[in-house]
Amino acid sequence: MCYAHDKRGTEAMNAKGVLPLFNGILCHDHWKPYYQYTACLHSLCNAHHMRELERAYEQDKQQWAKDMQDLLQNILTDVKANGGAVSAEQFKYYTECYRNLLDKAQSECPPPDELRKPGQRGRIKRSKSRNLLERLQLYEQDVLRFMSNPIVPFTNNQGENDIRMTKVHQKISGCFRSKDGADIFCRVRSYLSTCQKNDVSATDALGLLFNGKLPDFIR
Length: 219
Fold this sequence. Notes:
By secondary structure, the chain is mainly alpha-helical.
C-alpha cells in the first residue's frame, strides 16, 4: 500500500495504521524503525546482504564475505529444490555452517580497539564489513528465517518493486506540488500494483476504471 506522509519513519508508518497491528512476518532491509514493531516476526532481505557481501569481498578483500555469499546461495538453491523449506537435518547443518563461518570471520575482520581516547564518546566506529558481520551474527534468525518457513521470501524485492515508480517520479519530476497530487499518485500506483498481482494488466485495469467498473477480484 503506497501513501504519502510528511515524515518517513515510525511516525509515518503508525499514521497509516497497518504495521502497528501487523502480527505476521515483516521482510525488510534492516531499517531500524521497522524493529519498533514487536508484535510481528522479522525477516531480513538477503538481496541486500548479497550486495553488501559483494562489496566487502571486492573492496575490502574479505574472503569470509565471498564464502557467506556462496553459503546463502546454496541454502536458497536447496530451499527451492525442497518446495520452500529445507529439512530439519539440512536446517541444523546450514545453521552450523553459518555460525562457523562467522566465527572464523572474526580473525579476518576483527572488532575495533575499544580503548577510548580522552574525551571520546559514543560507539566506536566500525568498518562497513565489520558492521555487516555483526549484523549477520546478531540477527541470525531473521537472516535465515527463509530457510525454514515457506511463506518467507529470500528478499523483499516485491516491496522494493512496489515503490520503485514513486522513486522514479521523485527522481525525474521532483516533489509533488500538493498533498492531494501525492495522494492521487499513490492511490493510482497502489491500484495498479494490486491489479498486477492478480493477473490484471495495467491497461485492462485502467480501462475498467474509465468504464466505471472494477476488476473481478475486488468485487
